[in-house]
């Protein structure tokens, strides 16, 4: 298995600017669903939540941090010349599509079971993306591990909300 060593040199100003652009882009795409669906709806407020449901403020903080890590990871893979780069970028795009689809499925359609199906597919795509990123840049793969952990927690949370309110 060959892993790119491109990251052993320090990035220049243009490269850092590009990295910031990737971080902003991933945060923007990740935030898009919030413009159409919201946890502030009367439907969501009326749902019974499990005891381990985090405080509302945790979600924007965690997602901003995770999307920032994803943006850096994406930048590391994008700037690589490794042969596996194309497949890794494709998997990243697919998992982002499912990430973005979860909010409308859960909040917009008010269908926690459908959203649970979306998040299960998302989990599999994130795991595959980590494996693909590892073939390109191990640091990029490592940056996705907290995201997979959060998706795991979110899936358990989603399942429990569905169970409590079915």
Concise summary:
This protein has 166 residues and is mainly α. It has helices at 13-31, 42-46, 58-78, 85-108, 112-136, 138-165. The protein has one domain (12-165): Ferritin, CATH 1.20.1260.100.
Describe the structure.
The chain has a single domain, classed as Up-down Bundle (Ferritin). The protein is 73% helix and 0% strand. Helix 3 packs antiparallel against helix 6. One of its GO terms (cellular component) is membrane. It holds the Pfam family TspO_MBR.
Please tag this protein with its features.
mainly alpha; 166 residues; TspO/MBR-related_sf; Ferritin; elongated; membrane; 6 helices; 0% strand; single chain
Share in helix: over 70%
Q: Which architecture does the CATH hierarchy give at level 2?
A: Up-down Bundle
Under CATH, the topology is which?
Answer: Ferritin
Multimerization status = single chain
Number of continuous helical runs? 6
* Range of strand content: under 5%
**Average pLDDT rating:** 93
Number of domains: 1
Report the end-to-end length measured between terminal Cα atoms. 47 Å
What structural class is derived from the secondary structure elements? mainly alpha
Number of strands: 0
CATH class: Mainly Alpha
- Could you spell the SSE succession in H and E letters? HHHHHH
Low-confidence stretches: none
Write down the overall geometry: elongated
CATH homologous superfamily identity = TspO/MBR protein
Main pleated-sheet profile:
none
Rounded to an integer, what's the Rg over CA atoms? 17 Å
